[in-house]
């Protein structure tokens, strides 16, 4: 098609005089003539150049004579011209010439024509002795024509000029044959008409061929379109019966074309199950009968499978305005409808568990509560939060976490049966809506069942996983009649359940509101206290068990409320964490502690508690670094106490944080060990220097029958294996202290060695007592120990040693002054010259040892005796008189 188009454009009518005239006149030019004319047209510049040469040659009488003989005749001239044209027709068909022929643009043509015509006119006037006026006339004809060509590029004008120029010498040479000019001009006109006819025919032919080609192309495109399933076509007759339908469309609805042809068009559209006309059928039926166009009407197809179409159609009328039928297109909407349905489903359901999601649960709760109708429905809302899920997710990976959530969802669904709807709100939060249940006994049983079911072990990828769940319950209409109130109250109940130790359920109670309100007020006051310097810190000594040397102090924040008095950090720290105030408090505590520790003895450490929220902050290591740099204390004097909570907070890269802190050189202690999940992998992965055994294991460990001692011992063995130190927290009594010592804890912290005190007191104690602490407290099964600083003599065999009593009770004493005494060694303790007791070394650490008297003594007697100066070993046991 492109070939046809270009040849039509290049075809230029031209003039081979007296050639094919008859055929041209008969209306349709033969192909050879068309080709010849095209060739001449294409070779136009060459024609002009050849002509120019010939005329130049003819201008030389010698050449002219040689060429044409003595008589220059018009006949000879025309013959030459004719031959030239013939040559022009033939020569371009010779292959070698085609290769050589230069491509000359039309713009080159203009000057050639101008030059050719000028020379031609001059020759006419000189060679053929035509009157100058005639030459001027010719000039006047040729020149404007040439200019017109150059301006308009009109090829017909060019043809006309050629014609006129060719005929002109004939007319001027034989003025007496001027009467012949009229028929000749007529002939020329005919010739021109023939040429135009040829051109018009050629254009027509081209046009028809173009149309056919376009039609074929359109057909191919339509077939492709149909086969690709992007759309189909249909046609009906005047009575609305199908006369054409795309084959692929027919295949879609599982019928054959033969079955459909001649059927009413509405048979393509799906019917109501009851057999009644559907809404869509009625709409389309209306358009067909009203003969009005319709577009993009979504209809269900009359097919077995679910199939949706978008139908468009318009009435077809003949050129006389007569209605012929309908014609239209069909687009397949099935995939789009399905994906829309999927999107709608995803918008309402949780993709992981398949349970209803938050949006759907909210809608259902609203519906259960009576929705916008204002009717208050009875319904119960359970809010559930999984315990320890974060730890599972973090340690075992997200795929395990996902599998766990799916299993939890199944257990919950099983537990509630079909009386309730279970939904997942996100993360490890679930919700259950029970319409119309108000019996609290029943609800409590259900909550028990849920907790029990969820707490059973799960096996995921061959590993056993155990988690728990806490449940908050709010019952409508008592605990709220609208969605938001009920949800908030269930949330308060859940908060209480978690606060009360997790794995339990709580009904909402009004007091919870009061608690929440109280927390809110405390939060306000805390903000105020922070901004007005209402907080201060105290330090509690941490003592090395073996030597009783103070290894460091734990920093404990204190808040004295203007009205309520001192408030425990166990109460206000969680509030600060929730209110986003903990980072501010923590930063201040860290800075204060480091600045205070600068004035302590060089090797005394300072421990600071770090909230999981502080720990989750990526800039925390930088903050620690700056604080250390500002205070100037050595990093290994700072101990950061971290609870297991850091492993549970979302989004914390704990390992990276540990690595950064260790890189700073600070020490890390795992605080309150044993109260959380005590998952041993924490100890494996985190580079702790110390484990702080929670007070709950220490307290009462010395009481007969308590298993706490065994637990402490196990923790100590574990820590020793991991080369970590241990601090037993909360030792209050001498018995506890001794038990801790015997169990091998490396450090002790507790009231037995001192309560938290202000830095001034710490400094004063350092000045007065040095770096050793003195245990003081009740001995649960014995008399209280008395602190004492009394010089004694220790007699062993023939040897006598100077020593001091640090504390004493009726059954024993702590003695300082003799290093590395083997346990079991028996000494005579000489309190005075005449008061001696036998005592056995129970333990020894550094230069201290614990001694047990062979028999109880009277402490008053010790006090009444004058301190000893010199004792001579008698080798016998001395007793007070
Ligand atoms: P903790 O880190 O385990 O601190 C030890 C707690 O045990 C302190 O309670 C301390 O006063 C108390 N204690 C020490 N020895 C004994 C004892 O022999 N008997 C008894 N009954 N208690 C003893 P406190 O000061 O009330 O602090 C409670 C908790 O508040 C701390 O537990 C710690 O988790 C948190 N806390 C305190 N100060 C800060 C702080 O600056 N930042 C952060 N994030 N938490 C802090
Ligand atoms: Mg602590
Ligand atoms: Mg602790």
Provide keyphrases for this structure:
5 domains, Alpha-Beta Plaits, 881 residues, disordered C terminus, elongated, binds ligand C2E, Beta-Lactamase, 47% helix, disordered N terminus, eight-stranded mixed beta barrel, binds magnesium ion, 32 helices, alpha+beta, six-stranded antiparallel beta barrel, single chain, 27 strands
How are the SSEs placed, and which strands pair?
Layout: H1 2-10, H2 21-25, H3 31-42, H4 44-59, H5 61-68, H6 74-90, H7 95-100, H8 106-126, H9 132-152, H10 155-173, H11 181-227, E1 232-236, E2 242-245, H12 247-252, H13 257-260, H14 279-290, E3 294-300, E4 308-317, E5 323-332, H15 334-348, H16 358-368, E6 379-387, H17 389-396, H18 398-416, E7 421-426, E8 429-435, H19 440-455, E9 458-460, E10 463-465, E11 468-476, H20 483-499, E12 505-507, H21 510-531, E13 535-544, E14 550-561, E15 565-567, H22 569-578, H23 582-597, E16 605-610, H24 612-615, H25 620-631, E17 638-642, H26 654-664, E18 667-673, H27 680-685, E19 690-693, H28 695-698, H29 708-721, E20 725-729, H30 734-743, E21 747-749, H31 759-769, E22 786-796, E23 799-808, E24 812-816, E25 826-832, E26 835-845, E27 848-853, H32 859-864
Parallel strand pairs: 11-12, 14-16, 16-17, 17-18, 18-19, 19-20, 20-21
Antiparallel strand pairs: 1-2, 1-5, 3-4, 4-5, 6-8, 6-11, 7-8, 9-10, 13-14, 13-21, 14-15, 22-23, 22-25, 23-24, 24-27, 25-26, 26-27
Helix pairs in contact: 4-6, 4-8, 8-9, 9-10, 10-11, 17-18, 18-19, 23-25, 25-26
The site of ligand C2E has 24 residues, from β14, α22, α23 and β18.
């Amino acid at each position: 098609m492109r070939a046809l188009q270009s040849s039509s454009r290049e075809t230029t009518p031209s003039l081979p005089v007296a050639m094919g005239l008859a055929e041209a006149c008969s209306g349709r030019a033969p192909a050879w003539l068309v080709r010849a004319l095209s060739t001449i047209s294409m070779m136009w510049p060459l024609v002009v150049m050849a002509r120019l040469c010939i005329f130049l040659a003819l201008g030389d009488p010698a050449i002219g004579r040689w060429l044409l003989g003595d008589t220059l005749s018009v006949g000879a001239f025309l013959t030459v011209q004719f031959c030239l044209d013939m040559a022009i027709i033939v020569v371009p068909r010779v292959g070698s010439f085609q290769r050589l022929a230069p491509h000359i643009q039309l713009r080159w043509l203009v000057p050639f024509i101008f030059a050719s015509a000028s020379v031609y006119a001059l020759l006419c006037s000189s060679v053929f002795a035509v009157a100058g006026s005639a030459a001027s006339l010719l000039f006047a004809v040729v020149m404007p024509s040439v200019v017109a060509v150059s301006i308009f590029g009109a090829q017909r004008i060019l043809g006309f000029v050629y014609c006129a120029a060719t005929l002109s010498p004939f007319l001027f040479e034989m003025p007496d044959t001027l009467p012949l000019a009229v028929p000749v001009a007529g002939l020329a006109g005919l010739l021109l008409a023939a040429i135009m006819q040829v051109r018009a025919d050629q254009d027509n032919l081209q046009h028809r061929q173009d149309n056919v080609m376009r039609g074929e192309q359109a057909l191919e495109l339509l077939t492709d379109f149909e086969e690709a399933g992007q759309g189909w076509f249909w046609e009906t007759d005047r009575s609305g019966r199908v006369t054409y339908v795309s084959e692929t469309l027919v295949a879609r609805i599982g019928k054959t074309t033969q079955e459909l042809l001649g059927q009413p068009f509405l048979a393509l559209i799906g019917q109501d199950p009851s057999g009644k006309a559907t809404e869509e059928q009625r709409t389309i039926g209306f358009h067909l009968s009203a003969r009005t166009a319709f577009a993009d009407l979504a209809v269900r197809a009359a097919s077995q499978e679910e199939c949706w179409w978008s139908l468009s159609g318009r009435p077809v009328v003949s050129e006389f305005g007569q209605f012929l039928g309908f014609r239209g297109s069909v687009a397949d909407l099935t995939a789009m409808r399905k994906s829309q349905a999927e999107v709608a489903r995803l918008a309402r359901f949780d993709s992981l568990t398949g349970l209803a999601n938050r949006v759907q649960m909210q809608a259902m709760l609203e519906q259960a509560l009576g929705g916008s109708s204002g009717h208050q429905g009875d319904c119960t809302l359970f809010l559930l939060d999984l315990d320890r899920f974060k730890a599972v997710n973090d340690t075992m990976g997200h795929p395990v976490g996902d599998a766990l959530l799916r299993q939890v969802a199944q257990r919950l669904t099983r537990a509630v049966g079909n009386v309730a709807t279970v939904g997942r709100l996100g993360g490890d939060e679930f919700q259950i809506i029970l319409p119309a249940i108000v019996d609290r006994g029943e609800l409590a049983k259900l909550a028990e069942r849920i907790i029990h079911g969820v707490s059973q072990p799960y096996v995921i990828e061959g590993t056993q996983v155990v988690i728990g769940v806490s449940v908050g319950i709010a019952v409508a209409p008592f605990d709220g009649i609208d969605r938001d109130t009920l949800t908030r109250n269930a949330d308060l109940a859940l908060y209480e359940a978690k606060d009360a130790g997790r794995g339990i359920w709580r009904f909402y109670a009004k007091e919870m509101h009061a608690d929440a309100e109280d927390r809110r007020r405390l939060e306000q006051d805390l903000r105020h206290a922070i901004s007005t310097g209402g907080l201060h810190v105290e330090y509690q000594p941490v003592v090395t068990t073996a030597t009783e040397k103070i290894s460091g102090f734990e920093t404990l924040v204190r808040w004295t409320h203007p009205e309520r008095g001192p408030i425990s950090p166990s109460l206000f720290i969680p509030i600060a964490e929730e209110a986003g105030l903990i980072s501010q408090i923590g930063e201040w505590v860290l800075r204060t502690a480091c600045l205070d520790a600068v004035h302590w003895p060089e090797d005394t450490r300072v421990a600071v508690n770090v909230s999981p929220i502080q720990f989750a902050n990526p800039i925390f290591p930088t903050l620690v670094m700056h604080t250390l740099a500002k205070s100037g204390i050595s990093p290994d004097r700072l101990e950061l106490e971290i609870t297991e909570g850091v492993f549970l907070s979302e989004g914390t890269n704990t390992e990276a944080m540990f690595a950064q802190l260790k890189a700073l050189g600070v020490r890390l202690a795992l605080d309150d060990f044993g109260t959380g999940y005590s998952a041993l992998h924490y100890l494996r992965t985190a580079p702790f220097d110390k484990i702080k055994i929670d007070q709950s294991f220490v307290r009462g460990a010395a009481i007969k029958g308590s298993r706490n001692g065994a637990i402490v011992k196990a923790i100590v063995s574990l820590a020793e294996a991991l080369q970590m130190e241990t601090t037993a927290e909360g030792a209050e009594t001498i018995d506890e202290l001794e038990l801790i010592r015997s169990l091998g804890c490396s450090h002790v912290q507790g009231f037995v060695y001192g309560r938290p005190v202000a830095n001034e007191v710490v400094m004063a104690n350092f000045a007065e007592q040095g770096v050793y602490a003195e245990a003081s407290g009740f001995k649960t099964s014995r008399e209280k120990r008395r602190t004492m600083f009394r010089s004694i003599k220790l007699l062993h065999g023939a040897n006598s040693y100077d020593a001091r009593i640090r504390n004493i009770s009726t059954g024993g004493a702590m003695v300082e002054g003799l290093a590395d005494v083997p346990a079991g060694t028996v000494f005579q303790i000489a309190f005075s010259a005449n008061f001696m007791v036998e005592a056995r070394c129970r333990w020894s650490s550094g230069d201290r040892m614990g001694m047990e008297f062979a028999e109880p003594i009277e402490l008053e007697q010790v006090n009444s005796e004058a301190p000893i100066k010199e004792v001579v070993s008698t080798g016998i046991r001395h007793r007070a008189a």
